[in-house]
Amino acid sequence: MSKDLLFEIGLEEIPARFIRAAMEQLKDRTEKWLESSRITHSGVNAYATPRRLTVLVKEAAERQEDISEEVKGPSRKIALDASGEWSKAALGFARSQGVSPEQFTFKELAGVEYIYATKNSDGVETSTLLSEGLHGIVSSMTFPKNMRWGAYDFKFVRPIRWLVALFGQEIIELEITGVKAGNASRGHRFLGTEAVIAEPAKYVETMSTQHVLVDVKEREELILNQINKLAADKSWTIGIKEDLLEEVLFLVETPTVLFGTFDPSFLNIPQEVLITSMREHQRYFPVFDASGKLLPFFVTVRNGNAESLDVIAKGNEKVLRARLSDAKFFYEEDQKLQISDALAKLETIVYHEELGSVGDKVRRIRAISDRLAVKLALSGTTADEVSRTADICKFDLVMQMVYEFPELQGTMGEDYARKAGEAEHVAKGIFEHYQPRFAGDAVPSTEAGLVVSIADKIDTIVGCFSIGIIPTGSQDPYALRRQAAGIVQMVLEHKLPITLQEIFDTAVEVHENLRAEKHFAADLRINLYEFFGLRVKRLLSDNVRYDVVDAVIAAGFDDIVDAVGRSRALMDTVNGQADFKITVDSLTRVSNLAAKADNGVAVEPSLLKEEAERKLYEIWQAIHTPYQAAMNARNAAEALKILSGLKDAVTGFFDSVMVMAEDEQIRTNRLALLAGIDADSKAFADFGKLVW
After folding, report:
1. Which of 691, 692, 680, 590 is nearest to 643 (CA)?
2. pLDDT tier at 284 (50, 70, 90 boundaries)?
3. Which of 58, 154, 502, 668 could make an S-S bridge to 42, C-beta 3.0–4.6 Å?
């Protein structure tokens, strides 16, 4: 026999950003409790609105399952003493399992006999477990921020105002912070009333009559359908940003889409400003024409029905007008400030107490950028654009618009720089030097933006590492992992002819030259290399087998473009050539013996006595130069093809030559030959890490 179980936690309005995680957590904890309590069921549905978190368990068994559990104890040798009596270990095991030694059985496992105890436990009525179980689920939940209320020590995301707890039609005895569970829920704050839930299966339907759509998916579909219908009716494109849709979804219980308008004169402000103001401050969706140009309309979602939408729209228009008027004022005032004056203000803004002001950071960015421009052999004009971009890349941080909307840093800098007469690539570079801002974001398209972006990010990373701020676990307050991943992405996508070590050295030298207080540990560069290694490994792991990644990383990743090329070539070869394992086995055997060679010993051809070793030496000499040329040209596929040409000669060598000869000179010479081949092989990958 089974019954449905309903548990609703009624709350004061929960912050929208907490709700989905809280809903999923409640579902997860309920499922785990049911499993640990041995209560079978046919599924758990979770629901949530700003005022409630709910789980509905379908067909929960009315009684726990009985269990018969067999527990392994000590071996027979330990369980019995010399006289054949039960030992202290066996008696202790019996007490711990609540059985008598007479109930022991012997079973053989992996050739050894062990004693086993069988524990039987009869299931109890589910109804007797629910009160304590549900209370435990609620008290175990965690949130980014908690509240306490009244005189209670209990903490939760928001104060609990009502509880619905039903097992079938039976109300579960449960009380939390003075709130007793019942069968009455509350409808929409303004449109609904108290509603009695006759039975769990009628929960969704009953709440719908009280203007509450508890099903998250149903609410989302309703919002999207209304937005899409409005867009079709008006021939608009409505910008639906996923994080805004998620927030709106958890701000309403009965969603109704409406639109409003604003004065077209505001369109003289950059549309990014208008969009940000609408989205971030008002939770409005912007409206565009077919070409992507912003239109003087907005779309919002009301928590209510379709009554008096005109009045609601007018109220929203009034609020938005004030917001956009502020934005217009900030925009006009910002343009009165000269770039040079803005740069002077950067000297008064502390970047970090141990790393100086933002002005100090800008000087380091400029110095790093100039050095990188030389290493990348940029033209004189482009190098000048890089320098100017670096000099003014942060000037908009002191602007009122960026103070009001921090997410517009770079966007406003580009606009203000262009209006101040800066070169197009310089203005664009100010915006682009923040890219990539997140995983999947575009990389800078201009050389000025690209170089300054690398300089900015490596300055932050080296600065933080030098004063001991190194990400550990989930802690990364300065987003150093994201910035390192951004550098890796930029080097790769633009195929830059620069190594990580060159980037590290450039930044460390600039910090040494420009910082009065130096905190450089001897292993700073090693820590940086290991830190970036994890970013490269993660990048490769998206499309490459784990053992191939390990093999390639072991050979080095200083040249990111080369490392990615080697991983792809090796992955293609492993998947596409059935006999490649022979090559891998040959190179692995070479590597194992090469480890015994003396460092720095060159091969002496006159000591090569056997035909097989002379042949191997000749083939290696013939391929060495083209192999190196292919590697230097980052042509990994060609390099691997050339290296694979050693296969037959290596096999013949091991078939007929005793490497560890008694003659020391001959032995040393043969090991030197293998060491040379191994050095070439290890430059591509550590083939011994491949798994077949």
Report:
1. 680
2. very high
3. 58
